[in-house]
Write a structure and sequence with these properties.
By secondary structure, the chain is an all-alpha fold. The longest helix is centred in the middle third of the chain and has 23 residues. The C terminus is likely disordered.
């Protein structure tokens, strides 16, 4: 019999120590949840060490492999991530999440063939996955995999991502994946809603806060910044959020701040493709092609056919209105991946903005056919169908596309304004355009927003210029002076052509507003109470930071002040250094000279300009309002300060006068307001005493004085319709036909679709015996389909009688068609027949005359 020996006590001691060591090791290793929390907090080194230990201790747990691979990818260790995940997939070949992570790592490790093999493996896994109970995170993975296979995104959204969210314990990935998909397709409302729902469950997830911030990038950027701050409060090294803020800062022309954020990213991952792409974009914007090429090469150093690199560079260039260069990068992106939809859509928009409509619309249509969910592509295709209904008016220099119902009303007026603007501005700035300018006027604000921004939901813009093309809202949809808007946008065409679209936004807007004001003193912007207080309280931007004011505006008041300050700086520069110096700056920018260098060369160093401009601006602000104080006394402190510095308060005196008006004490209110306007001068906006003074004059039937007050308003504020309408009413009543002509034209500059100004203008031109003008006005009035069509046709016929009998006959017959018993029209028809020596058809006319009698 074979005997076995008993294990020695030493054996049990060794085993016990090994077991205790194992327990101790597991006790010392952070849990998966703790490690993920480290990763979310940006403790990447600690998280990587913990994930590595966790994987070693629990090699059967796929989540450790997944997390370690994700950390390695984040810090740019793409080859290590690829090797690790390859080993993990070998151990668990049917885990879809690991496969997807491996595919991503293979792309960044430039293992393209291997990544393509993963697509086939993923397809096979999905085909067999319906045999099993599918968990929520697997549903998400299937959905993400289906996206790479070109499955309709809406189906994926409904059948995978939403389904995963409805599970009892939905994973954060369900909200992240759906939010990403919505963002990619331009569905920002759904993206925002999805991320907010995810944050209710996972409030400490920085990826969700980043996603929510991203949903506001094309909308309310104050919301974007607030949510980005929450992501960085959790993880100050959160790379997607730092990238988002850098993107925003580039839009604001705050390039140094953007570089700081990008440097933070590269400190964590020195091969981050998007960070290098944005650095390349900044370099190209600043005319440093060597640095741009170097960063682009670095961005493509790991994944050589990454389409997002060229797409991102091109997109930022296009956002600086450099569409030609931007479109070239989109073509490069499509060479890397012909199915990369974002590049196709961006290229379509670039081409449309370069007036290359045929190719642009074809690309938009292709993008929509390939991806019906993409909202930008859908919007563009829908817009194209509507544009087919537009009519085109042309001269040698201009092409206007506009709604068919509006073209006969003010189309010719718009062409004349553009031709006059060309003569004035091209001569002034020394440029002859080598291309025809296309102007698109949209009667639907949503269509304007789609054409301009790719989607609706960007209110507040009256017009936008891309260079050879500019778009604007129809006056039928906006109560602004459309003529000043058109002049403003054409001025952009001039300056963008000179600089080859290489100019900061503040200078571009500043020159356009400045030139508006020079052309017509009621156009552009003037000093307001709000602007005065901002200037005197040192709330202006430095000249080098002024473009950021447009992007960082909290509300419309901030935006309007950005326009005003830009124009004020332009005026300061021209008045201090001359127009020739300004033109030299523009031409230098076109040659690639940086803005600061151009300013220093032709004006003065930026520091000197800033200090001198502040003095200039404050002097201008103090000219307004005489010796009045303009701060409303809203509390005890204000009252104390008022007692220490007892200046008369403008608002107090205005409110006192308004109180007298409420009591219908018109005489005393008039005296108070007259004194106020004499001492304060003209104050535009809500605090305009001239408005109330005109009301007093009207109530007191002092029409001449009322006219003077209203004229001051109209001559200062070109978009103010009410004073113009009242002045036209008075002129018509008094039969002051020259005044009627003046105020009719002013009304038409605000709203040409109104019937009243055309009616009165027609009367005026008739009385003043301006036959040619009367014909034009009358025929325009007919296009508006007024209720008195027969009368208008008859009067137009009378104007044609001596110059064009054929047209006179046509309009006479149309008058009779509208009013068969119109005696004067029959008489005119008879006169026309006599005039042409044509025998009268006696019987029919006699019968008709008898019938009338």
């Amino acid at each position: 019999m074979l005997k076995t020996s008993k294990p020695s006590p030493l054996f049990f001691l060794v085993c016990g120590l090994a077991f205790l060591a194992s327990i101790h090791a597991q006790h010392d290793t952070p849990t998966l949840g703790q490690t993920r929390a480290q990763y979310y907090a940006g403790q990447y080194e600690e998280a990587l060490q913990a994930a590595s230990k966790g994987r070693e201790n629990s090699p059967w747990d796929k989540d450790w492999w997944q997390l370690e691979g994700e950390i390695l990818t984040t810090i740019g260790e793409y080859e290590k991530a690829f090797s690790l995940l390859k080993e993990g997939v070998d151990r668990q070949p049917y885990d879809l999440r690991l496969r997807l992570s491996l595919r991503k790592a293979a792309l960044f490790a430039d293992e393209m063939e291997f990544a393509e093999r993963q697509d086939r493996e993923i397809s096979s896994i999905i085909s067999s996955s319906n045999r099993y109970r599918i968990q929520a995170d697997t549903l998400v993975a299937i959905g993400e995999a289906a996206l790479t296979m070109g499955i309709e995104p809406r189906l994926i959204l409904e059948n995978f991502f939403k389904k995963a969210q409805r599970e009892t314990n939905p994973p954060a990935s369900a909200f992240l994946a759906m939010g990403r998909l919505a963002l990619d397709k331009g569905d920002y409302k759904l993206a925002s809603k999805t991320y907010q729902e995810g944050l209710q469950i996972f409030p400490e997830n920085p990826d969700l806060w980043f996603g929510l911030a991203s949903s506001f990038l094309n909308g309310d950027r104050t919301q974007m910044a607030a949510n980005a701050d929450k992501a960085l409060a959790i993880n100050k090294h959160h790379l997607p959020t730092l990238l988002l803020l850098a993107d925003h800062l580039i839009d604001a022309e705050a390039y140094d701040e953007a570089q700081l954020n990008l440097d933070k990213i590269l400190h964590v991952n020195d091969r981050h493709p998007q960070a290098h792409a944005l650095k390349a974009a900044i370099a190209f914007i600043q005319e440093d092609e060597e640095q741009g090429d170097a960063h682009r090469e670095r961005a493509l150093s790991t994944w050589s056919r990454n389409p997002e690199v060229d797409y991102l560079i091109g997109k930022k260039l296009s956002q600086k209105y450099r569409f030609l260069e931007g479109s070239a990068f989109q073509r490069e992106a499509l060479l890397s991946d012909r199915d990369f939809s974002p590049a196709r859509i961006q290229l379509a928009q670039d081409l449309l903005r370069l007036d290359r409509d045929t190719e642009g619309w074809e690309l938009a249509s292709e993008a929509h056919e390939e991806d019906p969910y993409d909202i930008t592509a859908y919007n563009l295709v829908s817009l194209h169908d509507k544009l087919d209904e537009f009519v085109t008016l042309e001269t040698d220099r201009f092409r206007i596309k506009m709604a068919a119902k509006e073209a006969p009303i003010y189309g010719e007026r718009a062409l004349k304004l553009l031709e006059d603007a060309y003569q004035s501005l091209s001569s002034k700035y020394g440029i002859e355009l080598d291309h025809r300018v296309t102007v698109e006027i949209y009667d639907n604000p949503s269509d304007f927003q789609v054409r301009t921004f790719g989607m609706p939901g960007n209110p507040g813009f009256l017009g936008v210029c891309f260079g050879p093309v500019f778009t604007m809202n129809s006056p039928a949809s906006q109560r602004a002076n459309w003529e000043s808007v058109m002049y403003h946008e054409f001025c952009h065409v001039i300056t963008l052509s000179i600089t080859r679209n290489r100019m900061p936004r503040w200078l571009s807007e500043g020159i356009s507003v400045y030139e508006e004001k020079l052309h017509d003193s009621s156009w552009g912007q003037m000093m307001t109470v709000d602007y005065r207080e901002r200037i005197l309280e040192d709330r202006m931007k430095h000249i080098g930071e002024m473009s950021a004011a447009f992007m960082r505006a909290r509300d419309d008041k901030d935006i309007q002040f950005a326009y005003f300050q830009s124009a004020l700086v332009t005026r300061f520069l021209v008045e201090s250094y001359g127009l020739e110096a300004m033109k030299a700056v523009l031409y230098d920018l076109g040659d690639g000279v940086s803005m600061n260098d151009a300013l220093a060369q032709h004006f003065a160093p930026l520091k000197t300009l800033n200090s001198n401009f502040v003095v200039f601006a404050k002097a201008e602000a103090k000219k307004m309002g005489g010796n009045f104080a303009f701060k409303k006394n809203e509390g005890m402190l204000d009252q104390i300060l008022q007692s220490v510095n007892p200046k008369s308060n403008y608002f107090d005196e205005l409110e006192a006068a308004k109180g007298l008006m409420d009591e219908e004490n018109w005489e005393q209110a008039k005296e108070s307001l007259e004194a106020l306007t004499i001492k304060a001068g003209y104050i535009p906006g809500d605090a305009n005493a001239h408005i109330y003074l005109a009301t007093c004059y009207r109530e007191l039937e002092q029409t001449e004085l009322e006219k003077l007050a209203l004229t001051q308003i109209a001559e200062n504020e070109g978009s103010a319709l009410r004073p113009v309408a009242r002045l036209l009413e008075i002129a018509n009543k008094e039969e002051d036909w020259e005044a009627a002509r003046r105020w009719s034209h002013r009304w038409l500059a605000i709203n040409p679709m109104a019937t009243t100004p055309w009616q009165i203008l027609f009367d005026a031109e008739e009385v003043l015996e301006n036959s040619k003008e009367a014909i034009n006005v009358g025929e325009t009035l007919l296009a508006l389909d007024p209720p008195n069509l027969a009368s208008i046709h008859y009067r137009v016929a009378r104007q044609y009688q001596d110059s064009n009998s054929e047209q006179a006959r046509k309009h006479t017959l149309m008058a009779l068609e509208e009013a068969p018993r119109f005696r004067e029209a029959y008489q005119l028809l008879t006169d026309l027949q006599k005039q042409e020596s044509i025998p009268e058809p006696a019987k029919p006319l006699l019968d008709l005359e008898v019938m009338i009698q």
